[in-house]
UniProtKB/TrEMBL annotation:
Organism: Enterococcus pallens ATCC BAA-351
Protein name: Phosphoesterase RecJ protein
Gene Ontology molecular function: any one: nucleic acid binding
All copies of domain DDH, residue ranges: 16-152
Domain DHHA1: 245-307
Top-rank taxon: Bacteria
Length: 314
C-alpha cells in the first residue's frame, strides 16, 4: 500500500476529520489545508470535516477557520498540512485526535504523526494535495481547485522559484481546467496596501549588500510603527531584494514587540536552511525562516549568511 493509499484508507475509516496547518499562514498553508477540506467534503459528504487554526492574517480572500470544541477531537482523524515541525502547528489540540497524519514538502526533521507523507521535491504542499486527489481519483470542485492553485502560486512566486517543475505546471494546468477566476486570485495574492508599498521604498533605500551578495534589511519596531505596519504585513516584502542583480542571499529581520527578531531568509544559490536550523527555525534550502532573540543573535545570523555567500562565490 502506498502512502497515498494509506491516507485515503485512514480518511475512509474515520467519521470526523480535523485539518490543521502552521502558524502565521501563507497561501500554501491555507490552500493545502482548506483545499483538502473541500475535497473531502465533496467526496465524503457523510463525514464531519473541520479546518481549524489561528488567524489567517490577511488571507481571508482564500478561506476562514472554524471554531470547534475540544470534545470533537475524541475519536477523530487529524491531518496537518505544510508544517515541518510540530511546535509550529497552529492550535495545540492537533495531538488530541485518535490518529495523526503529516503531509508536508519541507525537510522531514520532525517526523511526527502516525502516517507521514513528505515530498521535498514538490513545489508546495498544495501540489501534493492535488497529486493525492488526481492519483486517488477524488473529485475537485471549483473552490478546491482555486485554493490549491493559490497555494502553488504562493509557494512558487508565480512559478518563478527553482522549486517549480514541469510537474508543477502540469498540476496547475489541470487545476485551471476547473474554471475559477485565476486572474482575480493572482491579483488578490499579489496586491499590497499603500502603507506596505511605502515601506517597500524604505526597504530598497536601506538594503545593505556586501561584496559577495549577502543582503540584509532590518525593520525595527520604530520603523514598523512609523509606517503603521504589523509583522504579518511584511511577508510581501521578502522577495523584493531578489530582483537586484548583485544580491545572492538575503535576510529580512523584523523586530517584534517583545524584542526578538523574526527572520526570513532567501537565496539564489547558497543553501540556507542549515543556518536557519541553528537559530530556532528551518525550511527549504533556498527559503527558510528563523528567530533571533536579540540584536547580537541577529547580527550573528547576518555574519553567517555573509560566510555562506563568500563560500558559494568561491
Amino acid at each position: 500500500m502506498t502512502t497515498m493509499e494509506e491516507i485515503i484508507a485512514a480518511i475512509k475509516e474515520y467519521d470526523r476529520i480535523i485539518i490543521h496547518r502552521h502558524k502565521r499562514p501563507d497561501p500554501d498553508a491555507i490552500g493545502s489545508q482548506v483545499g483538502l477540506a473541500e475535497i473531502l467534503r465533496n467526496n465524503f459528504p457523510e463525514k464531519e470535516i473541520y479546518q481549524v487554526g489561528g488567524s489567517v492574517e490577511g488571507l481571508e480572500f482564500l478561506a476562514s477557520m472554524e471554531t470547534i470544541e475540544d470534545s470533537l477531537y475524541q475519536g477523530a482523524l487529524v491531518i496537518v498540512t505544510d508544517t515541518a515541525n510540530s511546535p509550529r502547528v497552529s492550535d495545540d489540540r492537533f495531538s488530541l485526535g485518535d490518529k495523526l497524519i503529516k503531509i508536508d514538502h519541507h525537510p522531514n526533521d520532525d517526523p511526527y504523526g502516525d502516517i507521514v507523507w513528505v515530498n521535498t521535491n514538490a513545489s508546495s504542499c498544495s501540489e501534493m494535495i492535488a497529486d493525492l486527489a488526481f492519483d486517488q481519483k477524488l473529485k475537485l470542485n471549483e473552490n478546491a481547485a482555486r485554493l490549491l492553485y493559490g497555494g502553488i502560486v504562493g509557494d512558487t512566486g508565480r512559478f518563478l522559484y527553482p522549486a517549480t517543475t514541469s510537474h508543477t505546471l502540469r498540476v496547475a494546468a489541470k487545476l485551471l481546467d476547473h474554471h475559477f477566476d485565476a486572474t482575480k486570485l493572482n491579483r488578490e495574492i499579489e496586491q499590497i496596501s499603500l502603507k506596505v508599498a511605502k515601506l517597500s521604498g524604505y526597504l530598497y533605500q536601506n538594503l545593505e549588500v556586501d561584496e559577495n551578495g549577502a543582503g540584509q534589511v532590518v525593520l525595527s519596531q520604530e520603523i514598523m510603527k512609523k509606517y503603521d505596519i504589523v509583522d504579518s504585513e511584511t511577508s510581501s516584502l521578502v522577495p523584493l531584494p531578489g530582483v537586484i542583480d548583485n544580491v545572492m542571499a538575503w535576510g529580512l529581520f523584523v523586530e517584534q514587540p517583545e524584542g526578538y527578531y523574526r527572520v526570513r531568509l532567501r537565496s539564489k544559490g547558497p543553501v540556507i536552511n542549515e543556518l536557519a536550523k541553528k537559530h530556532h527555525g528551518g525550511g527549504h534550502p533556498l527559503a527558510s525562516g528563523a528567530n533571533a532573540y536579540d540584536e547580537k543573535e541577529r547580527a550573528e545570523i547576518y555574519r553567517e549568511l555573509q560566510l555562506l555567500c563568500a563560500e558559494f562565490k568561491r
